[in-house]
Write a structure and sequence with these properties.
Elements (H helix, E strand, L loop, with lengths): L1 E6 L3 H11 L3 E6 L2 H13 L6 E4 L8 H14 L9 E6 L4 H10 L3 E4 L4 H10 L11
Parallel strand pairs: 1-2, 1-3, 3-4, 4-5
Helix pairs in contact: 2-3, 3-4
Length: about 140
């Protein structure tokens, strides 16, 4: 069963992601980047790491780009490397090349521009090896 952290300050976007992902595992929520990093750290230390983080870039207190950087730092502190790292999908309304390149450089595995479409989200998660089934995209 997959464990997913949804980092999203917008209620509607958060609810939509929960609906899409809840059938594949347990979904947890953080409303800003700071809360995401702290929750990620706590769950890792409790030996219940997340498999997936859906991370909005524009969150209060700490934006998603900085949160991703700190999450990767926490993993490094715990000796977690490359393929063992949590999979991160940026889910954001920002579609400019600067944000996209920055997110991938910092270590996200996928980038989805809002509104998040169910088929696209599930296809990305399948590509990351977190779920296995055939999607009917027709």
């Amino acid at each position: 069963m997959m464990r997913c952290l949804i980092v999203e300050d917008d209620f509607s976007s958060r609810k939509l992601l929960q609906i899409h992902l809840s059938k594949f595992g347990d979904c947890f929520v953080a409303v800003n980047g700071y809360e995401a990093v702290e929750t990620f750290r706590e769950e890792l230390e409790n030996k219940e790491p997340y498999d997936l983080i859906c991370l909005d870039i524009m969150t209060p207190a700490m934006n998603g780009q900085k949160a991703l950087k700190e999450i990767r730092q926490v993993e490094a502190e715990h000796g977690i490397k490359e393929l063992d790292c949590v999979k991160v999908i940026m889910t954001t309304s920002l579609d400019d090349s600067k944000n996209i390149m920055s997110a991938f450089k910092t270590g996200c595995e996928a980038y989805i521009v809002k509104p998040v479409e169910k088929d696209k989200l599930l296809k990305e998660i399948m590509n990351l090896g977190l779920i296995k089934f055939e999607l009917n995209l027709n």
